[in-house]
Amino acid sequence: MKKVLFTLVLTAFAAAQTPAFAADDAHPHDKPLLVGSDFGVAPWMMRGVNGPEGFGYDMIMDIAKRIGRPGAQVDDIAFSGLFAALLSGRIEMTANPLNITAERAKTMLYTEPFMATGNGFITAKGTEMTSLDDLKGKVLAVNRGTTQDKWGTENADKYGFTMQRFDSFPDSVQAVITKRAFAAANEIPTAAYAADKNPAIELAFTEYDGRMFGYAFRKEDVKYRDLVEGAVECMKQDGTLKALYEKWYGGDIPTDSPLITVYPGYGAPGFEGYDATPHDVVCK
């Protein structure tokens, strides 16, 4: 495993700035880091009494501090509008629990993975789902534009279900509670947390499939992606991410979890935009 020497990366990033980049206000160092996330994905990002809170909020605030930004501003953006906000320059990077996929990597630049996931299926309390075959003849609720939306579109005929699409996860959960849908699909960590907090539903079935979360940037933001990834690597090495997971999700994590695994190079290994060049980073 590479040593994490984050200070060197931060110094190199600052030294590499040219006058052209300095005139670019895409990443103003004297302003909060501007990111976007759906606030309906508990416990990743949700609206608390004093503003946004959750695993994702704590993580992005820590990153902002480590890269020298005065905090972070998180805009509440529905997942269906997240990519447009990124590519148009409305936000600097995503802060959603975003699946790393080959299709998305064609238009966006990913960091290395930092959380494992898969499809989690929520049903009404007491309603069993032991396999995907149990979806036959039923209605599956998904969030519009998500990986589960894509999965459902590709598998509806195979498993014989129909779909209802919603703009937020709470709406899809409500569809299950009110019997408009048999099940709601979301990322496993999100689905598990929702089921733990709501006695009307349960996490009936999970399908870990090797997918993982990462942050996304515009294609031209290679240097800034690398800077942020250096901060993420430090959070893995010093135990910050593990502590945040225990705080917001609870439970143990496996020894090979991306929450504590520092990957070689920059970006998501095996995907477009990955740079395998070794690097050393020193964490403060």
UniProtKB/TrEMBL annotation:
Keywords: Signal. Residues 32-252 form the Solute-binding protein family 3/N-terminal domain. Pfam families: SBP_bac_3. Residues 1-22 form the signal peptide. It comes from the Bacteria. InterPro entries: Solute-binding_3/MltF_N. This is Amino acid ABC transporter substrate-binding protein. It comes from Paenirhodobacter populi.
